[in-house]
């Protein structure tokens, strides 16, 4: 069987590079472009190609469902959503389309299948907001597919890339609700189109040999090798990126092009390293003034090829939902000081489905272990107490705010922490910025 492999060979004459200053500028641009794709590959390698990894889902074309909320022991991704247990699956669309079937879901339960391509664009949605809670089958096709839509398919979603991912979320309403979540997840089904139609399968696509992911290499000049591997599954290039890819080719970037840093001249390698450093600096500076993740996730059309925004989205919270699906906001606080978040009457988060605030440690951005085992708080938290005037006050801090206030307490580490608010099914006011999250206010001692 033919193999698609990660190749490390001497650079060819076609990969000759321009001046050192031009190499540096191209490398900076390319690293920002590649950053979310490589962060995505980190997840893909563990879930698809690394059976020994705890995150392994079983390979391509298989669902792995989690039926309970995340805990501090889960490190699959940073800033995990603790309201809706995850289901993961990756599909290879090269040989033929795949069909995704979903069950009828009770109207009061929110769920969403977010579909993401190798660029990390959210190119398709199935679920409560997008398609409703009724049962149905949906077909996913790759960039080369030209067939007809068969009977029984509600909608066809076309991906720019041959490999795609779903991060599916199903709302969990407390520990007693786990069985109901499992029932919804069990009704989700993946099939190749030939299996769906009960017809013989077409010839298999070449086997993929996934390169082992090394974070140090992924964020050095060797990012080029990973990018070249991934670009094999993004052909033909988007029309808006033809010129970009031609420019990138000047430093050895291209679909399946071999990359071996040891074969580059010292000057060329130094220029690429300088460009990578420039990119990291630019991302850090832009990150300081990017205080919300809204607008960092969406379709290619939504993102308008703003590669810095796409990179910051992956850095701040890989696989964030598009704004129409979920609004994100939050704070960085100091747990040594008790603070409040006060929602005035009529100013609670405007959610069609529900809202929550989840606490993360810094700098790793995982859930914070605490004696209450409370990792998030929101409109579904049992015992949450409203203020006398109908408003709501939340308490964030390492020490208890007092027994009478613990129902509204989100425990934090003693030092720095991050609190992320999520509004599922945000109103127009939230999406436009007319509604704003109230400030995190230290309590006077």
From TrEMBL:
SUPFAM superfamilies named in the record: VPA0735-like (SSF160935)
Residues of the DUF1214 domain: 334-427
Family matches, as Pfam families: DUF1214, DUF1254
InterPro entries: DUF1214 (IPR010621), DUF1214_C_sf (IPR037049), DUF1254 (IPR010679), DUF1254_sf (IPR037050)
Signal peptide: none
Domain DUF1254, first and last residues per copy: 62-191
PANTHER family the record matches: BLL3101 PROTEIN
Protein name per UniProt: DUF1254 domain-containing protein
Organism for this UniProt entry: Variovorax robiniae
């Amino acid at each position: 069987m033919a193999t698609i492999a990660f190749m490390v060979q001497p650079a060819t004459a076609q990969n000759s590079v321009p001046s050192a200053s031009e190499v540096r500028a191209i490398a900076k641009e390319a690293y920002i472009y590649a950053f979310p794709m490589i962060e995505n590959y980190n997840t893909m390698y563990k879930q698809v190609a690394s059976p020994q990894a705890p995150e392994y889902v079983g390979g391509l074309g298989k669902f792995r469902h989690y039926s309970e909320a995340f805990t501090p022991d889960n490190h699959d991704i940073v800033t995990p959503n603790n309201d809706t247990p995850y289901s993961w699956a990756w599909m290879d669309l090269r040989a033929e389309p795949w069909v995704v079937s979903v069950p009828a879901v009770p109207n009061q339960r929110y769920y969403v299948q977010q579909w993401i391509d190798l660029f990390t664009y959210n190119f398709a949605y199935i679920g409560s907001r997008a398609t409703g809670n009724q049962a149905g089958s949906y077909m996913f096709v790759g960039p080369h597919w030209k067939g007809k839509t068969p009977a029984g398919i509600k909608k066809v979603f076309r991906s720019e890339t041959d490999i795609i991912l779903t991060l599916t979320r199903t709302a969990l309403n407390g520990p007693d609700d786990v069985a109901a979540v499992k029932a919804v997840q069990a009704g989700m089904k993946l099939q190749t189109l030939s299996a769906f139609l009960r017809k013989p399968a077409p010839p298999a696509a070449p086997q993929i040999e996934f390169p082992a992911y090394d974070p140090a290499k992924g964020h050095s000049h060797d990012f080029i090798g990973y990018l070249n591997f991934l670009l094999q599954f993004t052909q033909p290039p988007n029309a808006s990126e033809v010129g970009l890819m031609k420019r990138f080719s000047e430093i050895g970037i291209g679909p399946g092009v071999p990359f071996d840093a040891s074969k580059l001249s010292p000057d060329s390698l130094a220029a690429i390293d300088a460009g990578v450093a420039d990119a990291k600096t630019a991302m850090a500076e832009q990150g300081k003034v990017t205080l919300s993740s809204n607008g960092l996730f969406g379709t290619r059309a939504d993102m308008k090829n703003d590669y810095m925004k796409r990179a910051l989205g992956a850095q701040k919270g890989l696989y964030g939902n598009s704004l129409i699906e979920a609004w994100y906001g939050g704070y960085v606080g100091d747990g040594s000081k008790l603070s409040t978040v006060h929602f005035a009457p009529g100013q609670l988060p405007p959610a069609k489905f529900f809202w929550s605030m989840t606490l993360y440690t810094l700098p790793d951005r995982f859930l914070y272990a605490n004696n209450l085992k409370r990792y998030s708080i929101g409109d579904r938290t049992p015992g949450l107490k409203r203020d006398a005037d109908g408003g709501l006050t939340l308490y964030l801090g390492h020490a208890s705010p007092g027994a009478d206030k613990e129902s509204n307490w989100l425990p934090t580490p003693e030092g720095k922490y991050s609190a992320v608010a999520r509004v599922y099914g945000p109103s127009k006011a939230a999406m436009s910025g007319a509604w704003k999250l109230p400030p995190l206010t230290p309590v006077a001692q």
